[in-house]
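TOPIC: backbone geometry
CONTENTS: sequence, structure tokens:
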Amino acid sequence: MRLEDYWGIGPKTSETLVEALGTERAVEAIESADVRALSDAGLQRGRATRILRRANGKAGMDVLATGDARAVYDELLSLAAEYALTAHAGDRIRVLTPLTDREAIEDRLTEVMTARDAWEGLSETERDRVVEAFRAYDEAGATDRAAVEAAITLREAGLSGEAFDTLAALDVDALRDAVGALGGVRGSLGDAANVGSGDPTEATIATGADEELDRRRERLEAARGLENAAFDVIDAVRDGSARDFEAFRAGVVEHLASETGIEPATIRSAAPDDALDAADFVSGTLRELVSELEADVTEREEAVAETLQARLAEAGEDVTRAVEAVSANAVHLSLGRFAAEHDLRRPRFVDDGIAVRNARNLFITGDVQPVTYGIGTHGLADVPDLSGTERPPSGDRVSVLTGANSGGKTTLLETLCAVALLASMGLPVPAEEAEVGTFDRVVFHRRHASFNAGVLESTLKSVVPPLVEEGRTLMLVDEFEAITEPGRAADLLNGLVELTVERDALGVYVTHLAEDLSPLPDAARIDGIFAEGLNNDLELRVDYQPRYGTIGKSTPEFIVSRLVANATDRGVRGGFEHLAAAVGEEAVQRTLSDARWSPDDD
């Protein structure tokens, strides 16, 4: 396959990859979603990630029908990647895409939930050991030895479950023996893929692997250090008052033995018999000595390599499995860690609906009010809720969500989008219960601040085409009135609701124009979010849980009440009091009175 056949790779990018990796290795990196290889080759990490997402999950990426849906997708994977235990695991998480096969979705969910249970089953000490093992593995460059050491630690931590079956099957004793052998050799012999078949002459034996080899190497380096200093040796020996050439020869042998630790007999055997003078004798001796010592080192290296190779061959399969298991389990355990930290639960899959009970928005921190909501056909309407929250009706195709400013309507759309996307990727969701259908497209459209024909046109072009395509679409659209005049926005919203029902899609549309809408189709309903007043700090108190079948109120008297209370300038205060009379002075006064005592005081 040509590199340019992959999405996002043009002639220049192809040339960059071929120059750095070669065509075969570049294709392998793309097919295996190796972000690191592409970024090391010169691509920006973000670009490499986008290329790999399309290369490995194009059909799934088509689910993200709008820029806002893609933004939520990016935020979700960035958040999940924060819990990655290795750099490679983080890269693998960032290139996850929605899956189009239900069985594949269920399989990944099972792996992640097993990993979540395993992570939660570890003590704090065991978790620290696991994190440290993966950190050491990363810092060592993901070598085979580091992988084996990490695998031993993971086994000792007691990780269990189907996702860790490969890990559980490893022979720990064999791996422990392999650690020493892997630590003693570098090169092809130390590559798990070549264990048992490497050429010993291609291996580099590490210092400390064999005492005799270390001794021979030290003597060789000492001899090499003197090889280019023959005249220094001559001067040192002559300073010893050598009387004749025989005495000089003996002095040279004694001096070299003292400086290098090499046995005198070895030095004498290397000395030439036909040297012309002192310089020729010393140079010839050192040259032959270095040659003999190099042969000794090579011979010992080959012998040690064969011994290490034999030890590695006995653990070859376990080493290979350990390398694969550590890489795979780093991804599973990272996702399990993410799920545990955010209390993510396994969703149930339905044919046609999306419903959540006590769902949370992952992008909001702090103490947040969970929300129960749903559209389409689902089973949450039939199950009693012990918390007292009303269950979402089942069967409606569309809901029109109304209510107070800052009432969490957009946040609810974002939460539903996140739930749909996480479930489509085979990941658990932030809700105590969730039922999620299979969607060919998710259309999420946030409110735009601009008000002009260009924004209206671009908005309609982004939300209508996915709605009329074949397959099932989830529409999550925020405040149409922000992009055109209110009267026409109501007409457009009516048309979108009717089109959504007609196309058998599901939709949640946020608006302040519910009272201006024409009668909705039978398969649509209106829900409302209500502000309940101001607290002692004059902040808006909102019940973020929508009330089904009820139009929410924006309650401007609460905002005007806050402005009246905060005004320090008499003239400005008078202006706000004039507005208070316009929206209902009695309501404003009641709000100010209530703000002096609220349920928050108890």
